[in-house]
Design a protein that fits this description.
Strand content: 5-15%
Protein name: MerR family transcriptional regulator
InterPro entries: DNA-bd_dom_put_sf (IPR009061), MerR-type_HTH_dom (IPR000551), MerR_fam (IPR047057)
Organism: Amycolatopsis minnesotensis
Pfam family, one: MerR_1
Helix content: over 70%
Keywords: DNA-binding
Strand order of the largest sheet: 1-3-2
């Protein structure tokens, strides 16, 4: 299947400018062109864009994404380094998840604390409620 740049942007969730930028910085191989000379993205291109989006979401720097893309073009010869890049990024993501979980634990603690305060205030301000909460 073949997709115009607008359709590829819509399907990938990236802007047309981002697609052109990724092409310019060599994250994305220049797509094939249709008979009129317009970019024609393939399903494989869209899968690669999806992967690049995941890498960006993990916070991977463009520099490493470019290295990964360059190694990908080399085929299996670059597989070891590509794996190393992903292993390191996974470690970084795991650290960030742990940090966010710690923040979530603090938020949960504070929310529970405020819920206890609200329950106490509700009982003090409405003695009839006290019998129902016991």
């Amino acid at each position: 299947m073949s997709y115009s740049i607008a359709e590829a942007a819509r399907r990938s969730g990236l802007s047309i400018d981002t697609l052109r930028y990724y092409e310019r910085i060599k994250l994305l191989e220049p797509p094939a062109r249709d008979a009129a000379g317009r970019r024609a993205y393939s399903d494989e291109d869209l899968l690669w864009l999806g992967f690049l989006t995941k890498l960006r979401t993990t916070g991977m720097p463009i520099r490493l994404m470019r290295e990964y893309a360059s190694l990908r073009r080399r085929g299996v010869a670059g597989a070891g380094r590509r794996k190393a890049i992903l292993v390191e990024q996974r470690r970084t993501v795991a650290e960030r998840i742990a940090e966010l979980q710690s923040c979530m634990d603090v938020l949960d603690y504070k929310i529970e604390n405020y819920e206890q305060i609200e329950r106490k205030l509700a009982t003090e301000n409405n003695p009839k409620v006290e019998g129902l909460t016991a």
